[in-house]
Amino acid sequence: MATEGLKKMLRQVEIKSDGDVFHEIFKSRPHHISAMSPTLVQNIELHDGEWGNVGSVIFVNYTHDGKDKVVKHEIISIDEEKRLVAYKTIEGDLRELYKTFIITVHVDTHGENNLVTWTFEYEKLKEDVEDPNTLMDFFIAMSKDIETHHLKVES
User: Fold this and answer.
1) For residue range 101-117, what is the model confidence (pLDDT) as tens digits?
2) Among 80, 95, 85, 97, CA closest to 33
């Protein structure tokens, strides 16, 4: 069973809401995302560790492609200076398709312009597994939901 090795997918989305707040949500307050993007994310719970700490384990109930799914992530990296958080998938639906799946969110802030970069690093379990394009669409849509929520709060 040959696999292609680790692949990378990257997509960026510009947001008008505060980039520092956006970073803080993914680092320390991901459990608030279900209130900001309820159609995509139903629940996020801390299973081990503390919010905002490397090594913490987070369990997520979400809806992707019209199906209810679950995933358990471990926070593997936090870089305050770069406003970056990386999660490694350790259990759940994604592990049925991918041997390795790492999600990184990076927020670039330049005055009014904030750029959110989502990066997936993944290794497929089988060659016929599709690339996670619709999952990337999910993260872009979730980013927009969070932005909309914060723009309403700020106004």
Assistant:
1) 999 999 998 767 799 99
2) 85
